[in-house]
Each structure stands twice: as C-alpha cells, then as structure tokens.
C-alpha cells in the first residue's frame, strides 16, 4: 500500500470537508425557508390587522406590482376574497376571513417547527462529521510523528 498523493487519510478528510460544506449550505437554505415562512406570517398579521381597522368606504393603496400603487375606495369590507391555497380563493365574510387567515398562520407555525427539526438533524450530522474530521487529523498527526521518530531513531527499539 503506497501512501502517495497525501495518503488515503487526506482524501477522506477532503471528502468530509466537502460533505460538511454541503451540509452548511443545506442549513443556510433551511434558515432561508424559515425566514420566508415568518415573512408570510407577518403578511397574514398585516392582513388581519387591516381587516380589523378598515371600513367600507375607506381609501386604500392597492399594489399593482413593481412597487406601483393606486388609491382605491373600498366598496364592501364585509366580503373578503381569501386565498385558500392551490390557486383557489373564496369570498368570505370578514370574521370568517380572519378565522381562515389565523388558521393559515397557525399552519405556518407547524411548518416552521418541521423546518427547525430538519435544521437540528442537519446540525447534528454536521457536528458528527466535524468530530470524525478532527479524529482523522489527530490520527494523521500521530502517524507523522511516529514516522518522524522512526526515521530519526532507527534501531532504538531493543529486542
């Protein structure tokens, strides 16, 4: 067995550090997902608050996209069109609309919980790999030390 190319230990370490990097990227992606869900919850809170404060005849700014808005007068606050997901929406009375929005917000809490668990698992896996990498580095250092000692003190071992 030749120890060419830095030896098998070096290759394993390289592979470990690539796996660790991939895990770090996954963890960052999960963090991004959590932030997206939180933003969705904040948007729902804003909608619930708006429903509580607006009246028929209120003037509101309606987003057209691209940062452009128009002013509009609310024709009827008693009927609210609420997205139900999957491309479906329903017209609901104000109280029902608030209930629907609160249910959506609570469901998003569950989603955040799932994402947190996923993140914990990834972090545990990452910690485990880091420990493996440290052990391998220590072993490689010990081997190098032994090789150095053998080279400097050949014949030191009495029979």
TrEMBL record:
Gene3D superfamilies: 1.10.287.370. Residues 13-40 form a coiled coil. It holds the Pfam family Prefoldin. It comes from the Archaea. SUPFAM superfamilies: Prefoldin (SSF46579). It is found in: Cytoplasm. GO terms for biological process: protein folding. PANTHER family: PREFOLDIN SUBUNIT 5. NCBIfam families: prefoldin subunit alpha. Heterohexamer of two alpha and four beta subunits. Molecular chaperone capable of stabilizing a range of proteins. Seems to fulfill an ATP-independent, HSP70-like function in archaeal de novo protein folding. This is Prefoldin subunit alpha. It comes from Candidatus Halobonum tyrrellensis G22.
